[in-house]
Amino acid sequence: MTRHTLLASTGAALVLTLAFAAPVAAATAAAVSAQTPGVQGLPYDARRGVFTFASGLDASLPAVVQVTTLGQSRGPSSDGDPKPAQGGSGVIIDAANGIIVTNHHVIENGQKFTVDLIDGRLFDATLIGADKATDIAVLKIEGAGLSQVQTVDSDTLRTGDLAFAVGYPLGLDQTLTMGVISGLNRSGMGDAIEDYIQTDAAVNSGNSGGPLLDSRGRLIGINTAILSGGMGGGNDGIAFAVPTRIMMFVVDQLRATGEVKRGQIGVAVGSLTAERAREMGLSIVRGAVVYDAAPGSSAERAGLRPGDVITRLQNRPVANAGSIQATVGIARPGATLPVVYLRDGREATASLTVQPAEVEAVRVGRIAAMARGLTFRSSGEGAGAQITVVEGGSTAAAAGLQAGDVVIEAGGAGVTDMAALATILRASQNAIDLTVVRDGERTTVSLPG
After folding, report:
1. Residue pair 211/60 in contact by the 8 Å Cβ criterion
2. Is 135 a catalytic residue?
3. Which residue among the candidates 60, 89, 116, 135 is catalytic per the annotation?
4. Hey, what domains does the chain have and what are their CATH numbers?
5. Which residue in the list 187, 205, 208, 228 is annotated as catalytic?
6. Which of 180, 266, 290, 403 is 20 to 30 A from 410 via CA?
7. Of residues 89, 104, 105, 200, which has the active-site annotation?
8. What are the φ and ψ backbone dihedral angles of 277, each rounded to 5 degrees?
């Protein structure tokens, strides 16, 4: 099974299939109002004698736009022709300010953007900002009489809810398809921040960036990808949308500063697999296994250790490592995230404080410190700082430092323990000479700044 990111095509062969529902008894129809839920809760239009969701969706459809990205090619193609324009969809979320949300991959590398409205108007659009990690981009147009969608919290969704995908697929004009919410909190399909809504509403090339709406026409997500088993990458009934919970975090930051600033908690995790669960004697297969907690990080201060299994974060269930990334990836620095984890099969709780993503040059933890590609701790010999890890490709590795070296002097000053070495390295941004003991012999190594 192959995961396909949704990209617009310049043409497509279409097969149209019509399906008709069985007629409804006249006695039943007469008993239901056009303005109130009908039989079994379905909205009913008594004037026309049909069940319909049109009244809830009508106000939202004019807010769904077609986005065309021009000038993506850095030069002519091999046959001398410029690269074709790329098309996708978008949705207006703020009519007063002309704010449109679409996908990052729809506008990627573009030099010019145009937006077509359902009423036939065409606008040039300005790119406010884009975030590749969540596949969200924000455009702005200047125009009067724009429509917008109402946005609701995607955390209120339930599997089985009706869902409507709207966009401009396969070169067609605006198209509406219906399905259900097939699943929530989907991740693990790439290295981006993923917490997708899964739906079986038909989504195809050109739907990228278009809205996923609930049965009342309210925005619940932005269509972004499909999972397809066919070579053509067509719809197989598995589509994914970025939930509004993530979308609004990104949009607010892009509108404010043009970029997204994220925090981190300093933990390396992997998904809990059935094999790993058996090795650890666990009877669960959902969670994230802690591999390491960086020195001085929030994760280390919270007491997380290698082998812990995180099961909940910020009161949300953790299905796999992607769940951690999705939660931390939209948390602002300074936010507190309650965490529930298993250690030796027993449940424990802690609180993580999201730290700025910018990594400090020198980080000091309880038992180890990190600086300039080195991880070191106090020597068991009673004096000096022992290097435990030398990061591959770092300046420390290039200088010839090795794991097991014991630093006893730095910049001519004696090193008594890990804290002393960290203090010296923090005070100097330049190259510094380290005197180390290796295999019982002293040697001097110049560590670049």
Report:
1. yes
2. yes
3. 135
4. 1-9+16-260 (2.40.10.120), 263-356 (2.30.42.10), 362-447 (2.30.42.10)
5. 208
6. 266
7. 105
8. -60, -40
